[in-house]
Amino acid sequence: MGVPISQMWTVASYVIGQKLKGNKRYPLVLMLEPLFRCNLACAGCGKIQYPTDILRKHLTPEQCFQAAEECGAPMVAIPGGEPLLHPQMDEIVAGLVARKKYVYMCTNAILLEKHLHKFTPSKYLTFSIHLDGPKEEHDFAVCRDGVYDIAVSAIKAALAKGFRVTTNTTVYNNANPEAMREMFDTMMGLGVEGMMISPGYPYEKAPSQDLFLHHDQTTSLFRNIFKDAPRRWKFNLSPLFVEFIKGRWDLECTPWGSPTYNLFGWQRPCYLLQEGYAETFQELLDTTDWSQYGRASGNPKCADCMMHCGYEPSAVSQTFGSLKGFLATAKYTLLGSGLTSPVGKTRTGKQPVSVSVTSQEPLAGQLVQLTLPGSPHQPVDPALVGPVAASNGDSSINNVDELA
Ligand code: SF4
Ligand code: SF4
Predict the structure, then answer these.
(1) Which H or E run includes 115?
(2) Which pTM was predicted?
(3) Distance between CA atoms of 258 and 68, rounded to whole angstroms?
(4) Which of 213, 273, 306, 311 to mutate to test the pocket of ligand 2 (most atoms within 8 A of CB)?
(5) pLDDT tens-digit profile of 254-305?
(6) Does the N-terminal or the C-terminal CB of the chain have fewer CB atoms within 10 Å?
């Protein structure tokens, strides 16, 4: 199953409508963060390092619906924290679906099988499963053994019940392109609808700062990952965004395209940076100095960012807002999303640099290192998610929500 035609039509007609109205800045995907607590503590995560009193809080369903209606984006992504730790997540999802929002609920899947009965399959609802590689790579990335197997089991269960399921992969500088390609094959074999993949952002708060990719490393790595990609791989990415992360298409960030709403309000300027909050979406649009953001701005915080939340809306806007973008998208789609196009120059005009491909052996070594006491990795706080979830390797991990 691919993305439903109705969803493609909704998004295309929404973007064209915004263009016809002359709106330069409009939201495409609301990034709704109802809570920050999580039952994992991944080394590259910049979302869970809040004081306990913040981690205990969450948005009410009404606050979530108000945010969705206020910004009007046709799609709503619910990242985290872990959304399934929210006691009313089923109510939030049902309310957004009733408002005809295309909802992508991002989850590490630890609790998905247990909670599946609370949700109803719908063309408006997709479970986006966090998977950062095949078994060894994923368990390393999330700093916990056994999570990959739980996620695969949850994917199978959700697909069997008729849910839309996609995967969501963040790539760091220790990524092994061959392992990524192996995961793509496995996921397509399981029957997921599509895969989303994006380079990680160097969050200041992330415990492992040496994991993040710089711009030219990103483009080189993605060219390796997508090299001679078979057509059976389906990505939940615009063809122009795929070309962008390969360094073959120029995009500028449009952070207002994925506005973020969370416990503090409308986050300025984007999902990744926290430079203040606005009380309303309109205030966010009107009072943010957007010229200070994006790679062309020279802001060092944006220099290495190629995240989908900043650049995917730009790709969609170019696809439906310019003849050049539309024709390029058509060409790349016909050629298999441009995955076979010749190597070009990067945005900076330099030839792509090569990136080293790590082997399996040092990866396993780093896994041990990351879990040593005193490492930068933050352990999961049992007081927030329950002692069972916080303990490593416990097979009864699904009890976690009982204490959430
Ligand atoms: S699953 Fe990992 S990356 Fe996602 S919110 Fe939890 S700790 Fe962060
Ligand atoms: S380039 Fe990245 S960090 Fe900068 S505003 Fe855009 S999404 Fe945010």
Answers:
(1) helix 112-115
(2) 0.84
(3) 12
(4) 273
(5) 999 999 999 999 999 999 999 999 999 999 999 999 999 998 999 999 998 9
(6) N
Question: Residue 288: nearest ligand to its CA?
Answer: 2
Please give the Cα distance from 81 to 87 (Å, whole number): 13
- What are the DSSP E strand ranges found in 121-231? 125-130, 164-171, 194-199
Q: Which residues contact 165 (CB under 8 A, 6 or more apart)?
A: 126, 127, 128, 129, 155, 158, 159, 191, 192, 193
Concatenate the DSSP letters of all residues of 36-104 into one string: ---S---TT--SS-S-HHHHT----HHHHHHHHHHH--SEEEE-SS-GGGSTTHHHHHHHHHHTT-EEE
Identify the nearest ligand to the CA of 55 by its number.
Answer: 1
Relative to the CA of 299, which ligand 2 atom is closest? 4
How many C-beta atoms surround the C-beta of residue 131 within 10 A? 30
How far does the centroid of ligand 2 lie from the alpha carbon of residue 6, in Å? 30
**Closest ligand by atom to 198 CA:** 2
The vertex-257 CA angle with 254 and 260, nearest 5°, equals: 115
DSSP character string of 257-278: GS-EEETTEEEEE-SS-EEEEE
Q: Which of 31, 33, 42 to mutate to test the pocket of ligand 1 (most atoms within 8 A of CB)?
A: 42
User: In this structure, what token pair is assigned to residue 267?
Assistant: 């986050």
Residue whose structure tokens are 């609790």: 111
The full set of domain ranges for the chain reads 5-256+305-315+387-403, 322-384
| Residue range 306-353, pLDDT digits in tens | 999 999 999 998 888 788 888 888 888 777 644 433 333 333 333 333
